[in-house]
Amino acid sequence: MSRRAANTTVPLYDDIYQCVADLKDSEKDDLYTDVWSCMAIYRALPPLPQQLVLRMLLPNCPLSTLFPKPETLPAASSANKQPPEVEWKKMWRSADNKSNFDFVCKLRVWVLNDESNDRIRGVSGTPVDVRLHPVYRTNLLEALSGDGEVPPKQKLAMHARPTDAMVKFGWNKWEKVLKYIVRSPKLNEQPNQTMINLLDAAWLVKLREEDQAPQLTPEGFQFLLRDTYSQIWRVLQQYMHQESIAPHKLDVIKLLFRMGFSKVAVPYALRNLTEVQQTTVLDLESFGLTHGLPKGEVTKKNFLITPLGVHLTSPSRDKPMFKPSGAGSKDDGTGYIIVETNYHVYAYTTNTLQIELLSRFVEKRYELPGLYVGLITRNSILGALKDGITANEILGYLFHRAHPEMHKTNKFVLPETVVDQIRLWESERNRIKTKPGTLFSNFSSADDYFTKKDIVKELGDDFIIFENEETQVFVVPSDKVEEAVDALKKAAKRVR
Fold it and tell me: What is the CA radius of gyration of the chain?
């Protein structure tokens, strides 16, 4: 199996909560034995389910008991023989709530209220009476009441680091990964081999056989367009799919949830974690999520958590985009590009990653301190399209990072002439599609041509991509030539 084929077996989720929702029921039951996982899941619930969970928590009652009972509802009128639907079912069926309620059930925060059934089952779809998962309820109640354990930390205040230093450390670690992906000339030190293998397995880069140098893939370019947390989560999913980690995926998820309730730059003890979690903490340093303390007698078994590690599992869409001061543009990476009608591009940034990304579809003219000047040309766009980058991705990148002045002066932000031309260049390239193949010609006779062509055709409809009876030639795709030649050789032996 090829690496790319193997990679397709890795299920990809937008965030860690969708990953949890897709776990087996038994795995969710195990996850909810962890207090911090219960708190993290509660924090991620939509507002209305959060309120309902709290109302069901102390009395340990089903959802239906929070609303008027059927017998207390007004009787059905003569014009309408059907009694009005009970309030909680009506609320569940609402278009605004249905998907949220179904997701809570998929997480198994709510389970069927069926005391006659010993097996707790998840529910989704039509409204059914539910109650809180008993293990989840117990641990959430313990966490909210303050009786639960706190994340273990050593009293090593003298070894704590300034928050600014941890912000810089975390971002620099992850920036090293991104610079490796784009093959930045300013990369002083490569990521460790584990990280390189993860990027390769995730098909974000393709390692050249001759020198193992990374080549950016179409998936890698799309990856670079994402925000920092989405990027880290994407590679983490590949990490959890490793053969050595996959059987212990729950331990990794519990650790990530636990880190979400920790404090930045405060020492925490490794001895309070499982063996798998201890290994993961060390691996997460290459992601910029953790930071090991100097290897002294007191500190060798402790670690620090960076802001990236704390905010990774936060459900908020307004997560701070941690970068060291002087990164060269706004912290959210927006508002620094100006595109003119003459196809000139001005990027007010000193960030090498942003410049490397622009250079994928913009020809560099010159670079000044804090200013990158380039030109959008046919060759630069066709080169990007050849690498698998689409016109929509290019335009989306320019639009979302457009300078505030462009929003003031142009109704459509980007000049229409530039937008139309980029799309025309894409359609120009898509008119002709090429496929490598091998030409079979110079047959001894017409019968020889038709006989051999039929032999190859019997292997499959995709074994011949072009044929011409007048010139007596046909073309076989490059990846099927060896199989076609073997078939022709076997047929020749049978004739003899």
Answer: 30
CA angle 487, 493, 496 (to 5 degrees): 145
User: Does residue 61 contact residue 131 with C-beta atoms inside 8 Å?
Assistant: yes
Looking at residue 317, its pLDDT comes to 58
Return the DSSP state at 339. Answer: E
Q: Is 191 left (phi over 0), alpha (psi -120 to 50) or beta?
A: beta
pTM for the model stands at: 0.71
Distance, CA of 89 to CA of 68 (rounded, Å): 11
How far is C-alpha 496 from the geometric centre of its chain's CA atoms?
58
What is the helix (H) or strand (E) element at residue 237, kind and residue range? helix 228-240
Q: Rounded distance, CA 170 to CA 161, Å?
A: 12
Instruction: State the pLDDT confidence band at 295, using cuts at 50, 70 and 90.
Output: low
Instruction: Give the separation between CA 239 and CA 357, rounded to whole angstroms.
Output: 25
In this model, does residue 127 exceed pLDDT 70? no
Letter for the amino acid at 325? S
Q: How far apart are CA 206 and CA 244, in angstroms?
A: 23
At 171 the three-state DSSP class reads helix
Question: Token digits for 236?
Answer: 């983490």
Residues whose CB is less than 8 angstroms from the CB of residue 168 and which lie 6 or more positions away in sequence, other chains included: 324
Separation CA 357–CA 374 (nearest Å): 12
402 DSSP assignment = B
Token reading at 433: 């599609």
End-to-end Cα separation, the chain, in angstroms: 36
Question: Which pair of structure tokens corresponds to residue 461?
Answer: 């409809």
Q: Distance (Å, rounded) from C-alpha 481 to C-alpha 475?
A: 9
| pLDDT (mean) for 106-134 | 68
Helix axes 47-57, 134-145, angle to 10 degrees: 90
